Fold NAD(P)/FAD-dependent oxidoreductase.
Amino acid sequence: MQRETFDTVILGAGAAGMMCAIHAAARGGRVLVVDHAKAPGEKIRISGGGRCNFTNIGTSAKNFISDNPHFSKSALGRYTQHDFIALVEKHGIAWHEKTLGQLFCDTSAKQIISMLLDEMNQVGCELCLGTMLESIERDVSGFTVTLGGDRAAIIRCRHFVVACGGKSIPKMGATGLGYQIAEKFALAITETRPALVPLTFGEDVLAGFREMAGVAANARVSCGKTAFEEALLFTHRGLSGPAILQISSYWRERQPIRIAFLPGDNVIASLASAKRENGRRAISTVLSDILPKRLAAHLAETHGWTGPIGEASDRKLTAIAATLQNWEVFPIGSEGYRTAEVTLGGVDTDGLISRTMEAKTVDGLYFIGEVADVTGWLGGYNFQWAWSSGWAAGTAI
Ligand code: FDA
């Protein structure tokens, strides 16, 4: 087998790996990026409905979950959302803010992939697709990496960067190999689980709202002390939509989630004023003024809110408002890694240097992006973590 030497080998041509490659090669090193997929940046391509929510204008460490909430501060603070926006603008990619600070390409997520590949070409990175890691060994002077597949070779390198993401969406090439590499080098892994994922319900709960599949409503969804106010979507298997995806990262088995429709509204006051203005209107009709029609009709039917609102007592109006704004349900699980946008948990940040992403106990070994125990909220935060951590490692190599 062919033997070669590189300064840096990066495993994974995703968001973090490509960013790291650009900055490592810009410093003059010989950089090889290896990926078993047939194309680089596949998750970038499908992200944000094909338009890539590439960052969030309000990104800060508060938007991330990790056993060490301070770990992400260094990388996020030194390569910020504004740095990435400047890169996007340098490449003439038009973008817009959709909602809640989420920035998307105007045209296509493929522009972000082309931008990263252009930058990699400019600094002379080598990219090998269809290539697998067969083994990695370390000795005093560096790593011996055996590659199989399209670019089979034995490679010596001083730096090895693990950028192969988490376990979410195996169909798109996720393997979890990064965790095995961490374990091989005696680094700890925090518990991993699917996150930013739809929640599923038992038949008893589902029977109560299955016919609502496809209905979306704004809601405040909470679990313990954490709450998100965004859209909620009823599905055939349970609940989805941004508010549910967000709370899924905090929910644990056997815990309830609480759902408040019409968050922030004074529902009792709205119902009382509807009663005063026209008492002959049916309760379900009044509710359909403030909720999606199908949801209003369904709630009225299942709770027996029949008859004109004029005949409803104040106690009943209070009970209706309480039902709308304090619905407690127990999910039984989630859709799992099949649809999860990210993997929660990962390589324990206690074992990594936050400024460089290098393992504290293994010189030259780095973990960047989703494989590390830093998980962002929905809204462009996960890509920003990939850019920032990739930059931190790349500029340290
Ligand atoms: P990433 O998964 O991007 O890259 C890992 C690379 O390693 C892949 O190219 C893979 O093929 C390769 N690899 C894996 N195992 C390997 C092995 N054994 N050998 C060789 N190569 C291997 N985030 C966000 O901020 N905004 C958004 O709009 C979205 N949208 C979105 C939609 C969907 C459907 C998903 C699934 C995810 C998102 N995300 C997102 C999350 C975002 O995609 C994710 O956080 C980043 O891609 C993580 O970047 P990484 O580079 O760490 O891993």
Notes: The mean pLDDT is 97. The longest helix spans residues 381-396. Residues 11-17, 35-37, 42-43, 46-48, 52-53, 132-133, 163-165, 168-169, 173-175, 177, 341-342, 369-370, 380-383, 386 surround dihydroflavine-adenine dinucleotide (CB under 6 Å).
